[in-house]
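# step 3/5: fold
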Amino acid sequence: MSEPTEFPFLPLEDLIKQSGMSQSGNVASKVYTLLRSLIVEVKLLPGRALPEKEVAAILNISKTPVREAIIRLSEEGLLRVVPQGGTFVSTIDVQRYIEACFIRFKLESGAVAEAARRHTFEDLCRLEVCLNQQIAAAAEKDYTQFFLLDEEFHKSIFAAARLAGVWSVVNQAKGEMDRMRHLKRVFAVRRTEEVIDEHRDVLEAIRSANSESAVAAITRHLGSLESKITELSRDPKLWNYIERMNAQSPTKRSPKRGLPQ
């Protein structure tokens, strides 16, 4: 594998204006969504300062919604607020990554079992359309779109289970997972074809109304906590890059190798 291109350190104004705020939600929610996207896509690098006043000025809004967004992101562990010292993008934390994986495994295995029991024809159509769009994105090597469709597929599982609100809990918890997934994409650590096959298995299990098969299929797809650590250990370039980014951060915190005890 060739060395990846360094993540560019772009001015905050450029990053924010390139991304823009979404059209839905209140102002604080829009700011939260914007900043979270920049963090998990590793556009805002670990350790980077995120001045509340500067963000508000760029967006031409008051500091209050920015402060509310920062509080939410700090509660998720994506930002670190230092009293009298400012706000910084958190280092990549393997422990937080493992915890996010655990939450997702537990909640999604329950959701897919419910989806097998409670889905409608419309739910199956939504999942199938999403899967076909993923196949098209993979063929075009549009990995950003593939990632977004992957999110939509899993969100649709919760909708089919009549547990749409639980997806927001999963989404809030998995920020570190998403940041790691974007890093893997940059390092060309991809499972595109495997993901398509596994999504197809999940869809067919839901279609057959077999809860046990659905849980088995999502378990094969999402893997185990041990497998997530093994994936990182098998790619030393990715791991070393994470350590280097963390070492450059003011927190000076490096990820620990191996499973937490």
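# step 4/5: annotate
The CA atoms of residues 131 and 212 lie 21 Å apart.
# step 5/5: archive (pending)
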